[in-house]
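sry for the spam today, last one i promise. C-alpha cells for design, 156 residues
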C-alpha cells in the first residue's frame, strides 16, 4: 500500500558505499530527503543524482540530509559515487526490504529485471513523518525538485 503524507516513515538501517551502517533513527532532528533510484551508471539516475550533488547547498540550508537508495551492491555504489563525485550517502538496498517498505519496487523492470527500485522521493521531517511522497512509474521521469525544495523550506 502506498505511503502517504502524514504517515510515520518506515525505519531502516542500510549500508552505504563506505561500508557504514546508516539508520533512519540516527537522523532524528534532521529533515531527510530519500531518493530511491533504479540503477547506478544509467542516464536518468546520473542526471538526477548529479543535479542533487550540484544543488547540495540548497539541502544544507534547510538542515536536510540527502540519502540515495538503490538495490545495487554497496561495491557498485562506491564506484558510482566516486565516478560521479557525489557528496551524499548512497545506500544499498540489495535485499530490497526498504524499497518494499516504501512501496517503490518494480515487479519487472527493463530487460525482465525483477525487483528494481522505482524512482521515488520522500521528504521526512525531523520527527520522521512523511511530508512529501512521489513514486514514479516511468523510470525516465524525474521527481519534482521544486516541490521537494518548497516542502523542505516550509519545515524550518
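last one done:
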Amino acid at each position: 500500500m502506498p505511503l502517504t503524507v502524514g504517515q510515520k516513515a518506515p525505519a531502516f538501517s542500510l549500508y552505504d558505499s563506505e561500508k557504514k551502517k546508516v539508520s533512519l533513527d540516527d537522523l532524528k532532528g534532521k529533515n531527510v530527503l530519500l531518493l530511491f533510484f533504479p540503477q547506478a551508471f544509467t542516464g536518468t539516475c546520473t542526471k538526477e543524482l548529479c543535479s542533487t550533488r550540484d544543488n547540495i547547498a540548497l539541502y544544507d540550508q534547510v538542515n536536510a540530509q540527502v540519502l540515495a537508495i538503490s538495490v545495487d551492491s554497496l561495491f557498485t555504489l562506491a564506484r558510482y559515487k566516486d565516478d560521479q563525485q557525489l557528496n551524499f550517502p548512497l545506500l544499498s538496498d540489495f535485499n530490497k526490504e526498504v524499497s518494499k517498505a516504501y512501496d517503490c519496487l518494480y515487479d519487472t523492470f527493463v530487460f525482465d529485471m525483477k525487483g528494481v527500485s522505482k524512482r521515488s522521493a520522500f521528504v521526512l521531517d525531523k520527527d520522521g513523518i512523511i511530508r512529501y511522497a512521489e513514486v514514479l512509474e516511468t523510470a525516465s521521469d524525474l521527481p519534482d525538485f521544486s516541490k521537494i525544495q518548497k516542502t523542505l523550506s516550509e519545515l524550518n
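The chain has a mean pLDDT of 94. ok im logging off now
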